Amino acid sequence: MLFKINKDGTGYDTLMSFTGVNGKKPYGTPIIVGHTLYGMTSESSTGFGTIFKFNLPVGIDELSAEMGVNIFPNPFTNELRVTCEKKGELFLYDLEGKEILHQKAIAGETKINTEKIASGFYLIKYTDGSRSATGRIVKY
Which structural domain, as residue segments, surrounds residue 123? Predict the structure, then answer.
């Protein structure tokens, strides 16, 4: 299943489930070309695997608009920069929901070394203790 975490962190919305036409049993590792995620399944309604394509918009508008947080560049390579009005915490998650990174954010600019993080789509969450917001970012 591909999913989107709700802005308030209370749950998620399903973007694509792997049943019927989309196939069952995702197989292998998805690949990213531009802003499109491609993958395959080992089984579908036809009895054979299928290739799926999902256009995942890249954006951090939710963070900027709701909390005064800016994350750049996006897409990024070896470093992310985060500017925020209040100190808080940053969490980076892969698309399976596994926490990849946890770092304190200071008021002003925080630099995050991302050299050891694999290329792919990630969710970044910022919380200031009373509020939180999540956005999507891409590492090339």
Answer: 61-139
